[in-house]
């Protein structure tokens, strides 16, 4: 079933991918105020360059609708209208989550204002500071306002390009809850903090007196965070819409060094729109070691070989390629609890194939081969195949047991005894007859 | 000699014998016909359907056997039962019933009679009841004579106590087991009478069949040794007993060990030790007899004393030692509950929760046996009159079975045959006495009246004297004889005879009416289909169970796991063909307790359990709308108790009662009750039915709160026409990793409370 689905998906994606970069489709809805549309030309152009078809829509426009008859109309949605209080009625937090379950990827920008999106952020376990509490930093010294901050990119990141220059940021930061699906992309600098710039330094003092409560320290905050939902769809939350703007893209970080905003926007869009770090399980098979046909049920203590084929999406060629780079995947053989948990390692020489041979436990029941690979940034891989593990057949047990020798000995001695007894009896009878005959 | 009415005197003895045997054959076939016909109420009133719960498993297993053959059945591992543990069916089932049906099926198909396996299963029990009547006839014939045998056959053919387990469609082990029980006993009595190894072996073969067919074989395993032991203690050891017992025990035990489910139990569990012990004792006694014939009596008595004492002590010590070491399994809980009726309730709620394991109520003795229960003691007393070896057997059987029938409702079934036999003996003695034309002869001395003349008209006369004759040595008749020394005893004239016979025939007639009524009204409901009466008296069929099961069958993927209380496991597997968590084969207490815990916990606690067991659908039975009292809310306390047995910290029975100790479902219900999954699933949207009016639960006669429970982790998937079965779908995990309660709140548009980052710093003071 699973393999069939992936097969169909494979063909669907093949047909769609000849043009698009994304593994998920190339239609993008951009929700942006008509007036601000020209502020993001660099970002939009880079997306178009990648092969995406952009459709623009103002927040209060009724068309084009995001979903028709519960089927999402677009593969990806970007909402850059962070200041808008009201959206058209088909864009609500609930409908956005509904879109996520349909596989639509979302790129959402927040602002320091309280909007519908801020309440949605809470559902993703993002903790926003109170309204109009932007990120503030006094470092490095610069001419810009305190709320316009160059955020250094992390030294190593799966999502962002290496050696990315600092990224200009202005907007609201967020703290991360304990949701394991969150993928931190860009953290706020440690020396920054979130503060109400209007009320001055008093709030800061109050917060310190309360033992840090309500003190939004930069070390705890992020400015851009990804979210990998269970269905496979991706969401990226960015604290401020300016990050994508032409102004910040052109702005220099220091003398002669251009900001990393353009590249950052491209990287984030690539991750969100399922170009990078996208994996899938093409197929899984299981069979007895030394054979090739899969069985519906195995016997306890059988040696079972399980293999999975895994592909990774290559955005440059828009194709799925076998991928052998996963070194920490595990296979579980589960009935209620994992009875066996073993490393599922790539097979050298056959790209994309991961295989393991193990001895089935000495316990009958309905077992599942479970692959549950969840790593931050990467697509979640999940596969579950049910097989029954049965006790040996009535003729599947060893015939002669050394432990049973007392019984064999008993049976043999009784047979021999019976034979001897019969022989003696018959012999005695005949002698008696002879004796009688003699007597006569 | 004077007679009360003229007897034909010109009949040759051969004519009389032939006529009698023809009449017997006709009577037996009529009895068989009546036995089968009276069991067809279920088919006529409802349809040809498998009944109740266990038969559904037997039917499903039989289909596998018929379709795939015996070896595949033997090795059948059922992955859909006890999900995800699975069930090794071949090793955990008594295959006798399925094998019997399979043989019949293959036989009929070999004759090119394409009979559906379902019809064979439905009609098996009535068919075997005819055989039971015949076996009872043979057995009773050994006790008294053919006329008593015919009466016994007629009784067992229609007695409700047996019909209750053998109507058409009641495809359960008991359906064939009673025939095997009676026939094994018959073979045993025959073997004992004749000292025949052939009949002993025959008894062993049918004992094997019985072992393969029903767990109640333990009754035979203990009855026959007990009979042997009592005979030895009465000083009635004979070589006949030795031959009969030894051949039965050796062959019977060896063959019974071939049944996979029984395995080594006959040599390793306490229930079977009596048979082994008596077997050993017989060898010793036989040896002692041999010794006695070779040594003088004084020496022998000393020797006997020493040997018996040492052997007894040694045997007992060995038994205790082996039990202590674990080589012999101690008595099982089910067994203890036979001695102490309160035991199960205290220690094994799962056994106590089965309604047929409850002690028998007095009325049910009358319901099941009617006037036989009054005749039964008379028949047992009559057995004392002659007290041949086989009469001892009936007496022991009567005593044991009476006790067990009083302890457990379902063991009424083992009592029924002996009641029929003893009553038939009593009734036929009564008839013999009063139909007999002989009158006491004034001229003949009282001593001669001991042997009443043979009467040709009333079939064969027994060797046994009528109660009128005082020579049988019974203490009672001696007393009576002593009290009235000069009066002659006997029956004079036709009037007394007439009065008694009319009365007796009247009893028989009323018995037939009672049996017909009890069978038609009480024992023929399939319990899969319910019947009620419309206002105009016509029958209205309530078919909610099958509606729900077919919904599951048609609308869910084949691998969808259904959780329900264990009562419905077999039916879901049989009719809906979906994997179930627990079913009526209650071998794993923990797994059942897990389901009990899920049902009696709140949604948040239950959800991880449901996810862990891959549950897709939850099915509950709710009778509140219709007044169907066998629903899950009424069984709910058992779920709580069973769960409490495994998780005493998490589930506590008192929490489900109000502080006043009442079991309520209305607004006074306890919080644990109201939050439990079972309560929520039962009453979800129930009050909406009443459109704002008072919503009454018609089973418990309480008003359910107007604001019904809400469900966050389950979705209502299907509710049947009369709300008897409600099916809920378990929601999949939330897309965003939230708990489903807050996800649900979000979907309904509720605002989440603003959260703050966890403070990691402490102020320096």
UniProtKB/TrEMBL annotation, chain A:
Localization in the cell: Endoplasmic reticulum membrane; Membrane
Membrane-related topology note: Single-pass type I membrane protein
Source organism superkingdom: Eukaryota
GO molecular function terms attached to this record: transferase activity
Sequence intervals crossing the membrane: 405-428
Known role: Subunit of the oligosaccharyl transferase (OST) complex that catalyzes the initial transfer of a defined glycan (Glc(3)Man(9)GlcNAc(2) in eukaryotes) from the lipid carrier dolichol-pyrophosphate to an asparagine residue within an Asn-X-Ser/Thr consensus motif in nascent polypeptide chains, the first step in protein N-glycosylation. N-glycosylation occurs cotranslationally and the complex associates with the Sec61 complex at the channel-forming translocon complex that mediates protein translocation across the endoplasmic reticulum (ER).
Name this polypeptide is given: Dolichyl-diphosphooligosaccharide--protein glycosyltransferase subunit WBP1
Organism: Mycena alexandri
UniProtKB/TrEMBL annotation, chain B:
Chemical reaction(s) catalysed: a di-trans,poly-cis-dolichyl diphosphooligosaccharide + L-asparaginyl-[protein] = N(4)-(oligosaccharide-(1->4)-N-acetyl-beta-D-glucosaminyl-(1->4)-N-acetyl-beta-D-glucosaminyl)-L-asparaginyl-[protein] + a di-trans,poly-cis-dolichyl diphosphate + H(+)
UniProt topology in membrane: Multi-pass membrane protein
Cofactor or coenzyme needed: Mg(2+); Mn(2+)
MF terms (GO), sorted A to Z: dolichyl-diphosphooligosaccharide-protein glycotransferase activity; metal ion binding
Superkingdom: Eukaryota
Span of domain Oligosaccharyl transferase STT3 N-terminal: 23-422
Main location class: endoplasmic reticulum
Membrane-crossing segments per the record: 21-44, 88-108, 120-140, 146-163, 175-191, 241-261, 273-291, 303-324, 365-384, 391-409, 415-435, 498-520
Top EC group: transferase
Keywords noted in UniProt: Endoplasmic reticulum, Glycoprotein, Glycosyltransferase, Magnesium, Manganese, Membrane, Metal-binding, Transferase, Transmembrane, Transmembrane helix
Gene Ontology CC entries for this record: oligosaccharyltransferase complex
Keyword Transmembrane: yes
Region (Disordered): 443-472, 746-765
Gene3D superfamilies referenced in this protein's UniProt entry, alphabetically: 3.40.50.12610
Protein purpose: Catalytic subunit of the oligosaccharyl transferase (OST) complex that catalyzes the initial transfer of a defined glycan (Glc(3)Man(9)GlcNAc(2) in eukaryotes) from the lipid carrier dolichol-pyrophosphate to an asparagine residue within an Asn-X-Ser/Thr consensus motif in nascent polypeptide chains, the first step in protein N-glycosylation. N-glycosylation occurs cotranslationally and the complex associates with the Sec61 complex at the channel-forming translocon complex that mediates protein translocation across the endoplasmic reticulum (ER).
Full protein name: Dolichyl-diphosphooligosaccharide--protein glycosyltransferase subunit STT3
């Amino acid at each position: 079933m699973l393999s069939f689905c992936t097969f169909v998906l494979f063909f669907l994606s093949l047909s769609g991918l000849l043009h698009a970069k994304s593994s998920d489709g190339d239609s993008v809805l951009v929700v942006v105020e008509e007036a601000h549309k020209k502020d993001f030309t660099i970002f939009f152009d880079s997306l178009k360059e990648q092969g995406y078809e952009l459709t623009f829509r103002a927040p209060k426009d009724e068309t084009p609708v995001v979903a028709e008859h519960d089927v999402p109309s677009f593969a990806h949605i970007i909402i850059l209208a962070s200041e808008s209080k009201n959206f058209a009625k088909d864009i609500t937090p609930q409908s956005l989550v509904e879109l996520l379950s349909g596989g639509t990827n979302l790129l959402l920008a927040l602002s320091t204002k309280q909007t519908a999106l801020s309440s949605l952020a809470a559902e993703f376990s993002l903790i926003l500071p109170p309204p109009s509490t932007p990120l503030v930093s006094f470092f490095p010294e610069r001419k810009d306002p305190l709320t316009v901050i160059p955020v250094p990119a992390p030294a190593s990141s799966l999502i962002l390009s290496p050696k990315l220059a600092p990224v200009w940021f202005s907007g609201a930061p967020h703290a991360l809850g304990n949701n394991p699906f969150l993928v931190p992309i860009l953290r706020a600098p440690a020396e920054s903090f979130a503060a109400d710039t209007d009320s001055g330094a008093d709030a800061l003092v109050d917060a310190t007196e309360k033992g840090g409560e309500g003190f939004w320290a930069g070390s705890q905050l992020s400015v851009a965070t990804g979210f990998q939902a269970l269905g496979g769809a991706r969401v990226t939350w960015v604290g401020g819409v300016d990050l994508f703007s032409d102004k910040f893209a052109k702005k220099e970080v220091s003398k002669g060094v251009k900001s990393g905003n353009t590249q950052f926007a491209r990287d984030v869009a690539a991750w969100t729109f399922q170009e990078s770090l996208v994996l899938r399980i093409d197929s899984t098979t299981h069979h007895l070691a030394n054979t090739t046909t899969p069985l519906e049920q195995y016997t306890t203590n059988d040696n079972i070989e399980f293999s999975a084929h895994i592909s990774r999406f290559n955005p440059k060629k828009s194709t799925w390629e076998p991928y052998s780079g996963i070194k920490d995947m595990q296979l579980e053989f589960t009935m209620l609890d994992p009875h066996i948990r073993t490393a599922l390692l790539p097979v050298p020489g056959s790209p994309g194939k991961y295989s393991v041979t193990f001895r089935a436990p000495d316990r009958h029941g309905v077992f599942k081969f479970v692959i549950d690979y969840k790593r931050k940034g990467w697509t979640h891989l999940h596969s579950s195949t049910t097989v029954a593990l049965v006790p040996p057949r009535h003729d599947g047990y060893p015939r002669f047991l050394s432990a049973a020798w007392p019984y064999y000995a008993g049976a043999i001695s009784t047979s021999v005894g019976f034979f001897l007894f019969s022989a003696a009896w018959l012999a005695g009878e005949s002698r008696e007859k002879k004796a009688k005959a003699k007597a006569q | 000699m004077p007679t009360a009415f003229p007897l034909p005197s010109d009949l040759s003895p051969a004519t009389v014998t032939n006529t009698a045997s023809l009449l017997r054959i006709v009577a037996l076939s009529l009895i068989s016909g009546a036995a089968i016909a009276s069991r067809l109420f279920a088919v006529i009133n409802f349809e040809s359907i498998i009944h109740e719960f266990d038969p559904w498993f037997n039917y499903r297993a039989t289909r596998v056997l018929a379709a795939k053959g015996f070896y595949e059945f033997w090795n059948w591992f059922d992955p859909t039962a006890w999900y995800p543990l699975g069930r090794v069916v071949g090793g955990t089932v008594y295959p006798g019933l399925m094998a019997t049906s399979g043989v019949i099926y293959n036989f009929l198909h070999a004759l090119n009679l394409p009979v559906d396996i379902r019809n064979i299963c439905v009609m098996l029990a009535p068919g075997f009841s005819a055989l039971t009547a015949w076996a009872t006839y043979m057995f009773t014939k050994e006790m008294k004579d053919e006329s008593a045998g015919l009466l016994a056959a007629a009784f067992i053919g229609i007695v409700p106590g047996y019909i209750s387990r053998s109507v058409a469609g009641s495809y359960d082990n008991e359906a064939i087991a009673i025939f095997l029980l009676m026939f094994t006993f018959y073979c045993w009595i025959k073997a004992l009478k004749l000292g025949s190894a052939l009949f002993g072996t025959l008894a062993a073969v049918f004992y094997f069949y019985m072992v393969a067919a029903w767990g109640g074989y333990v009754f035979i395993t203990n009855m026959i040794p007990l009979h042997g032991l009592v005979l030895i203690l009465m000083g009635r050891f004979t070589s006949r007993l030795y031959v009969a017992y030894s051949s039965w025990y050796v062959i019977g035990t060896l063959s019974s060990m071939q049944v996979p489910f029984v395995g080594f139990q006959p040599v390793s569990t306490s229930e079977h030790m009596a048979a082994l012990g008596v077997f050993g004792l017989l060898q010793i006694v036989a040896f002692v007899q041999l010794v006695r014939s070779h040594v003088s009596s004084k020496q022998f008595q000393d020797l006997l004393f020493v040997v018996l004492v040492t052997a007894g002590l040694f045997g007992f010590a060995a038994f205790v030692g082996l039990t202590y070491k674990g080589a012999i399994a101690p008595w099982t809980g089910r067994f203890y509950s036979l001695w102490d009726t309160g035991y199960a309730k205290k220690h094994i709620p799962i056994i106590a929760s089965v309604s047929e394991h409850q002690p028998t109520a007095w009325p049910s003795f009358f319901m099941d046996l009617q006037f036989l229960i009054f005749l039964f003691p008379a028949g047992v007393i009559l057995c004392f009159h002659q007290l041949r070896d086989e009469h001892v057997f009936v007496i022991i059987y009567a005593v044991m079975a009476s006790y067990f029938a009083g302890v457990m409702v379902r063991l009424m079934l083992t009592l029924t045959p002996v009641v029929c036999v003893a009553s038939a003996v009593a009734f036929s003695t009564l008839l013999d006495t009063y139909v007999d034309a002989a009158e006491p002869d004034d001229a003949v001395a009282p001593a001669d009246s001991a042997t009443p003349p043979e009467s040709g008209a009333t079939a064969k006369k027994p060797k046994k004297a009528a109660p009128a004759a005082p020579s049988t040595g019974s203490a009672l008749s001696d007393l009576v004889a002593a009290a009235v020394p000069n009066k002659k005893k006997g029956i004079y004239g036709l009037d007394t005879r007439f009065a008694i016979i009319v009365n007796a025939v009247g009893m028989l007639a009323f018995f037939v009416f009672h049996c017909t009524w009890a069978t038609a009204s009480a024992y023929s409901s399939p319990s899969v289909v319910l019947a009620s009466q419309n206002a105009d008296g016509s029958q209205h069929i309530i078919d909610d169970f099958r509606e729900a099961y077919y919904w599951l069958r048609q609308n869910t993927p084949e691998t969808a796991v259904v959780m329900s209380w264990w009562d419905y496991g077999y039916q879901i597997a049989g009719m809906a063909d979906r994997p179930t968590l627990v079913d009526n084969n209650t071998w794993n207490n923990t797994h059942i307790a897990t389901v009990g815990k899920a049902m009696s916990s709140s949604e948040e606690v239950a959800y991880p359990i449901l996810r862990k067991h891959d549950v897709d659908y939850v099915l509950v039975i709710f009778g509140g709308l219709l007044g169907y009292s066998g629903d899950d809310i009424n069984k709910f306390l058992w779920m709580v108790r069973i769960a409490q047995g495994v998780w005493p910290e998490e589930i506590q029975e008192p929490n489900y009662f109000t502080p006043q100790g009442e079991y309520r479902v209305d607004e006074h219900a306890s919080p644990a009750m109201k939050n439990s999954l079972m309560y929520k699933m039962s009453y979800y949207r129930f009050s909406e039915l009443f459109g704002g009016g008072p919503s009454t639960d018609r089973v418990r006669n309480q008003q359910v709160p107007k604001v019904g429970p809400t469900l966050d982790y389950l979705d209502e998937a299907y509710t049947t026409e009369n709300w008897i079965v409600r099916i809920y779908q378990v929601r999949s995990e939330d897309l965003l990793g939230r708990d489903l309660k807050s996800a649900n709140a979000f979907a309904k548009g509720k605002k989440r409370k603003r959260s703050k980052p966890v403070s990691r710093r402490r102020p320096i003071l």
